[in-house]
Amino acid sequence: MKNRMSVIDIRAIVAELKEQIIGMRLANLYDINPKTYLLKFAKTDLKVHVLAESGIRIHSTDFERDKSRMPSHFVLKIRKYIRAKRLENLEQVGVDRIVDFTFGTEEKAFHLIIEFYAKGNVVLTDHQYKIIALLRTHSKEAESGLFAVGEIYPMTSKRHFEPITKHSLALTIKTALDEKEKELLKGPTVVEGNTKQKGNLNSLILKNVLTNNLEYGSGFVEHCLLLADIISPNLNLLDAKQEKTKQLLNEIDSVLNNQNESHTILDKLTEYFKMADDFILKIKTEKQRGFIILKETVKTKQLEEVTVENPFTKSDQLNENSNEGSSSTDPLPITELNELQLKQIEMMKEEKRLDIKRVQYEDFTPILFEQVKRKLPTNPEQEIKVIEFESFDKCADEFFSAIEAKRIENQKQNVESTVEKKVLKVKKEQELKLQELQKSTDKYERIASLIKKYYEMVDQAIQVICTAIAQAQPWETIKQIIKEHRDVDPIARMIQKLKLETSQITIILPPPGLENEEDEDDEEEEKEEPTKIDIDISLSAHANAAHYYSLRKKSAENKEKASHASKKAIKKTEQKSTESAKKQQIKSDITIRRKRFWFEKFYWFITSENYLVLGGRDAQQNELIVKRYMRKGDIYVHADVHGASSCIIKNPTGEPIPPLSLQEAGMFCVCRSAAWDSKVMTAGYWVYDHQVSKTAPSGEYLTTGSFMIRGKKNYLPPAPLVMGFTIMFKVDESCIPNHLEERKPRMNAEEALTYLNNGGMENIEFDETESTTTGTYEEETVVSGTDKSGPTKDENVIDDNVVNHNPKVTDEEVLEIIEEKPSEEEISPTEKKKGLSAKDKKILKQLKKRGIDEKEAKEMILFGNLPDEFKQQEKQEKQENSLEKEESHKNVPAQKPKGMKQGKWKKLKTKYADQDEEERQLMIELIGNKPKDKKKEKEPEKKVKEEEIRKKQKEQEEIKRVLEEENIPYMDEEDKEKLTEIDSLTGQPRDDDIFLFAIPVCAPYSCLKSYKYKVKLVPGNQKRGKAGKDALSIIRTESRGDARIEACLKAIEENDITATMVGNCRIATASSKKSNFGKPKSKKTTPKVPPEEKDL
Q: Is the Cα dihedral 244, 250, 253, 258 positive or negative?
């Protein structure tokens, strides 16, 4: 069976695909398996799916295939570069089995090169054929070097099509003969005394020589040899006795020696091989038909007699037919069906006929070869050997899809067989257990019935033993007496063994059908073996029978329980085996070590309004956070609690931060302090970035991690001591737009600013019950780090020596921290000049009109905490001033004119510096020197720019439409530039997301309400490592069934969990009771004791 495409097959496929997909955009790229990829091209209402298997095949397909839910990293990289790009060109590289897809033009072009020889490969390059990504890295010959990323793809080594000539044909055969003669001189290879031969050494078949040395393939070579009909394809070139061989060898020698003689054989062969060359050249321009050749002929009568079960027949109708005794082979009547149902049944028959044909698929070609024509049946109406298609592309799709369907069906059967084997094994084990329980039940019932039947004899035996024991006779004498009286006394004969240490005796009772010895002698052949029974001598015969009845009842109950348990065990094995079979099919590359974010070395979390909050683990990190990572517009958060870390809220936009994010940051700061261990609710506060300074008062110093805070401290409401553990997933770039609205701010900038400005000490009464207002308090304090230095005089000092949970600080990104000089904003208002400028006085009057006190207004002006309206006015004034300056400078030439002296140039600059453009134009008109109209020259440039803008807009609309059809969100380049690194993290995973890895996060529980997986943490006595494991086990139980999330959770390291967890906590989630912290539930539950056992 043909299993891969030849050079001619690929040439024909490329010619057809060119007409279909050039000019279309690549909507998406999927991986079916590690070597097979599906390229989806789209254009308006037309969609084409191209299937490419590395080293095997390429064609468009009309069949649906299961795509992997988690695309590989290779596919993600290709999507990044060429998705939504237009296909500009598609060509075969020379006469090699290589196809080159060109996406984009000029410097923005990318080449997707697929190789279909040997093991194959898929390579993505730029416009200069520099390799960006490839499926398989390998080293070629020593000349070409390494074939890897960063190297240049060897396009220069491609082979070009060369038409065959008589000289080249003769040279090909001659070189093959010379190589064979050298092999014969060497002799067979010897391995450990055994001659290892490869084929027949004394034969060299002409058909094999031409197939191996020419680019036509075996089918075309045999086709040309048969059409020439001058020489046999199986001619042995080493057999010099044959006349044809001699003639061919003589013609080869004469052609190579340039002798002008008649060359009958070579001329004929060259003629037909040139016909093959002409056909190959026609493939580029003409659409070729396709032919599938079958192994064996299929009779049309067999296809006509195909029958299917009627799916529209009612169940009661089937029962009537079965009761009447109709054979299953007879087709059911379909006279009562409508036209639509009849069509559906006919379609089912066609599918069955196609399945019969597909079993016989052997080869496919773009031309019907002569060797196939000769094997065609004489009656084509009755027998089928070849199936013809209108296009070769559809022919290849049908051939490979049939093979693929058969392979998938075999895989499913193997999976089903393994599942059945496991289920059968469990069934056998359960059946054996039930059989044993049934045997014990029957045994106890038989013993109880025998004791009940022969209760007089059993009572006599018990009485004999009890009287002997009552007479204080030794046990050995009792045994001896019983042995002596066995021949005479039936009671002694019945007693088999004494177990007096357990107050038991073993007796033998006959089967229930035999009562005396005479009956036993008469029916020796039919009698059963006697039963040995243990009798308790402390009980009567009836009591012993009742005891055995209770044992029978207990064993019967155990059997019922075991039967229920066996059914459950069989169901569980079926479910587990099917789940394991599904997991084998799912591919994931999540085990690769992930790249860590820069903020993971700190305490961190993302607020519910998408602000990143950082907190120091110790004094060094507190220093690093403030000095290196705090920028203008960021907020500093702290708490007046022992051990509270310095936290900052990153504000890349510069807009006012909403109060909800401030409150969540305050909770985070308080929970990361000593208040968590002492279980005391307290409040944090926040200040602006310019209020935090490293400059200490005169005569004093600040330790590492300590900072001066000048001005107002905005106090937050008391924070509840509730934290949450969650998992955030890093998604691919293509999935980010689906999650942009998850952490959207609940207040706009104006509302947030008014809310914060109205939260002064004068307007708020502090109360423990308040949770929404923000208080402010004016003081000058020192926020200190982990050093144990005492408080300075007249200042409030906070020591953070409890924050250090991990003394070893990572120095990967730590740079030298240089202390900056105190800026004007850091200087207290008393140190500034008391006088205000004219502009400041105007602003002060406007603020007073709004009802703001003079002191507060002055402070707002000095510290720059003005409303947005005043800030916008200042910006507009600055812009207007800058524009005026630019316009004044434009009037004067930027460079000194040639021939002008420097002094004169300076005078002109100062003279005409204040001249406007209108004045300049008036002066030029008065002089009569009118400049050339440059507007006319600029008009064509504007038109070109407008056309470019229109083209870009059209392209963006087209790309947006293509991606929307694929349910892929579209983002402009401007929106992509606004994205931050935390936008790719989500706590609400979707079914269509592509996960790269997962990160554990510990944050205030209030900001995790919308997250899918979360665990509530409160102060307790559990260590962070144990609590982290338990929390992760709870999340794993909740995420069962999703293989992608399970793979992400498995890849999380324990160090990451312990680093992010809060210490001394306990899990307070309701789901923790169900999962029981990962412990099995069966250990805690005690089995119920039946009432019969209690009585015993």
A: negative
Query: Residue 140 contacts by C-beta under 8 Å, 6 or more apart in sequence?
Result: 147, 154
C-alpha to C-alpha distance for 206 and 234, rounded to whole angstroms: 6
Q: Which amino acid is at 357?
A: K
Question: Across-strand partners of 133?
Answer: 124
d(CA 200, CA 777): 101
Q: Are 707 and 675 in contact (CB under 8 A)?
A: no
Q: Is the pLDDT of residue 193 over 90?
A: no
Nearest to 135 by CA among 208, 16, 273, 31: 31
Give the C-alpha separation, 580 to 60, whole Å: 33
- pLDDT tens digits for range 303-329: 776 777 776 665 445 455 545 444 444
Sign for the CA dihedral angle at 55, 56, 60, 62 comes to: negative
CB atoms within 10 A of CB 1021: 7
Is residue 681 within 8 A of residue 650, CB to CB? The reply is: no
**Judging by beta carbons within 10 Å of its beta carbon (0-12, 13-18, 19+), is residue 944 exposed, middle or buried?**
exposed
Q: Which two tokens stand for residue 899?
A: 């021939």
User: At which residue do the structure tokens 């200490």 appear?
Assistant: 696
Taking the C-alpha atoms of residue 978 and residue 1000, their distance in angstroms, rounded to an integer, is: 25
Closest CA to 114 of 103, 100, 125: 100
Rounded to whole angstroms, the maximal C-alpha distance in the chain is 163
Has residue 145 got a pLDDT over 60?
A: no
Evaluate whether 724 touches 1003 at the Cβ level (below 8 Å).
yes
Please write the tens of the pLDDT for every residue from 470-509.
Answer: 888 888 888 888 888 888 888 888 888 888 888 888 888 8
Q: How far apart are CA 819 and CA 623, in angstroms?
A: 11
**Radius of gyration for the chain, computed over Cα atoms and rounded to the nearest angstrom:** 46
CA distance 115 to 979: 37
Q: Per-residue pLDDT for 1053 more than 70?
A: yes
pLDDT band at 831 (very low <50, low <70, confident <90, very high): very low
Return the residue matching tokens 């044959």.
242
**pLDDT above 80: residue 142:** no
More confident residue, 744 or 617: 617
Residue 883: predicted pLDDT: 55
SS3 content of the chain, % helix, strand, coil (to 5): 45, 15, 35
CB 1020 within 8 A of CB 1064: yes
Query: What tokens appear for 733 in the block?
Result: 């770039």
Helix (H, G, I), strand (E, B) or coil at 974: helix
Name the DSSP letter for residue 825: T
In sign, the C-alpha dihedral spanning 798, 801, 804, 807 is positive
| Residue 732 token pair | 């691919």
Q: What is the pLDDT of residue 54?
A: 92
The two beta strands, 1014-1022 and 1065-1067, are antiparallel
- Mean pLDDT, the chain, as a whole number? 77
Q: How many CB atoms are located within 10 Å of the residue 860 CB?
A: 18
Q: What was the pLDDT predicted at 538?
A: 87
Sequence-separated (6 or more) residues with CB below 8 Å from residue 1072: 1015, 1030, 1034
* Residue 795 DSSP symbol: S
What are the DSSP calls for 462-505, one per residue? HHHHHHHHHTT--HHHHHHHHHHTTTT-HHHHHEEEEEGGGTEE
In this prediction, what percent of the chain has a pLDDT beyond 70?
77
CA 676 to CA 682: how far, in whole Å? 10
Mean pLDDT of 874-900: 60
Distance in Å from the first CA to the final CA of the chain: 75
Q: What is the pTM of this model?
A: 0.58
